[in-house]
Specification:
Elements: E1 2-3, H1 14-25, H2 37-42, H3 46-49, H4 52-69, E2 72-93, E3 101-104, E4 107-110, H5 111-124, E5 136-142, E6 146-153, H6 156-164, H7 179-207, E7 220-231, H8 242-251, E8 254-261, E9 264-272, E10 275-283, H9 287-297, E11 301-304, H10 307-320, E12 324-335, H11 337-356
Parallel strand pairs: 2-5, 2-7, 7-8, 8-11
Antiparallel strand pairs: 1-2, 2-12, 3-4, 5-6, 9-10
Helix pairs in contact: 4-11, 5-6, 5-10, 7-8, 8-9
């Protein structure tokens, strides 16, 4: 509880003065009697005894009115967190070539497993990566066809659950590298999400008008739209040409970071009648295309030959795509003026009513 106008309490100093003036005005004139015996025998009526209630009612009225002018109010503090974050689609190649091995913390894992482990740190944080807890992130995988594995979500745990389920293609008719389709699909999903968020925020401002605009700030606003493409191959399937998809992304203000996984000569672990064998393989990584995709949209291209390279690339993306979080605190007050003013009015009316009825004085 606090007073908005505490200076009004100085008016309470007038109460003794008002009582003094009231008492002076209320002094009765002297009347001479030959004897007071009959008057004393008559006693004092209850009306005389309780006539002092009129003065108390007047004092109560003045005190309540002064307190009302001081404007006591009870407040509570509220905090609103507004995030200007990144809407990001992770686009991961799961074609057969991603079965080639790659180094991860002294182990030899296939490229897809390495990508999954590093992306898990990129999302949640760990092993030198900060994590992206305040962003809206989704997951798309592709081989011959592009598929949405995870919708755009804020939940890191949900996204990690979807990421763990990603597996290499197992059927030859599903194998391939449809980079163009994957980029077009990711760009369309980002654009749709941006439109939906913009409409939702506009509706929020219209439905909840407030004197202070800070109180109606949306909890999430888009700062940038990003695609992170991870592939080890060359575009060879799909409806869309990669550069056509790039123009679509550019039109919608989407930045694309491209990451080349491995490349050159590597080994693939396969099962044979004689047991598990390491087969040398050479995958053509189209670095020229990946560089052009990134350059046209304002991103960058980088190649990862091992897990540490990939982790450093993710750290660089973290530096490029920062999330702004603004916390606004405000106080909301409930005015107590009305109850006090009504109390003062009730005391005044009570004094007037009693002075004209029960405690009426006839000169």
């Amino acid at each position: 509880m606090q007073l908005y106008s505490p200076w009004a309490l100085l008016l309470l100093a007038l109460v003794p003065l008002i009582l003094f003036l009231t008492r002076r005005r209320g002094l009765w004139a002297n009347v001479r009697f030959s004897s007071l015996r009959n008057i004393r025998q008559a006693g004092v009526s209850w009306r005389i005894r309780f006539r002092g209630l009129l003065g108390l009612a007047r004092i109560l009225c003045i005190v309540l009115l002064v307190l009302a002018l001081a404007r006591p109010r009870q407040g509570s503090k509220h905090s609103i967190q507004s995030t200007k974050g990144v809407v990001m689609e992770l686009v991961v190649d799961r074609s057969g070539s991603m079965q080639a091995e790659m180094e991860y913390q002294g182990q030899r894992l296939n490229r897809l497993e390495v990508v999954k482990k590093v992306l898990a740190d990129f999302i949640k944080g760990g092993n030198g990566l900060e994590g992206r807890p305040n962003d809206l992130m989704g997951l798309i995988t592709f081989a011959r066809y592009a598929d949405t594995i995870a919708p755009l979500v804020h939940s890191q745990d949900a996204l990690l659950g979807f990421l763990k389920q990603v597996q290499l293609v197992t059927r030859e008719e599903e194998d391939g590298t449809a980079i163009g389709d994957a980029l077009a699909h990711a760009a369309a999903r980002l654009h749709t999400a941006a439109v939906d968020i913009s409409r939702r925020n506009a509706a929020l401002r219209m439905e909840k008008p407030a004197e202070d605009e800070r109180q109606i700030r949306p909890d999430f606003e888009i700062q940038s739209k990003v695609i992170v493409l991870l592939t080890d191959g060359r575009h060879n399937y799909g409806k869309y040409n990669p550069l056509e998809s790039v123009e679509l992304a550019k039109k919608w203000g989407i930045k694309i970071y491209t990451i080349g996984i491995g490349g050159g000569e590597s080994f693939m672990r396969i099962q044979t009648p004689f047991g598990e064998q390491l087969i040398p393989t050479r995958q053509e990584l189209d670095e020229g295309l990946l560089k052009e995709i990134a350059q046209r949209t304002g991103g960058f291209y980088s190649r990862a030959d091992n897990a540490e390279d990939l982790r450093q690339i993710c750290a660089r993306i973290d530096q490029e795509e920062k999330t702004e979080i603004e916390s606004v605190e405000y106080s909301q007050y409930e005015e107590k003026f009305s109850p006090l003013a009504l109390g003062a009015l009730a005391a005044l009316l009570a004094e007037i009513a009693l002075s004209c009825t029960l405690f009426r004085k006839i000169p």
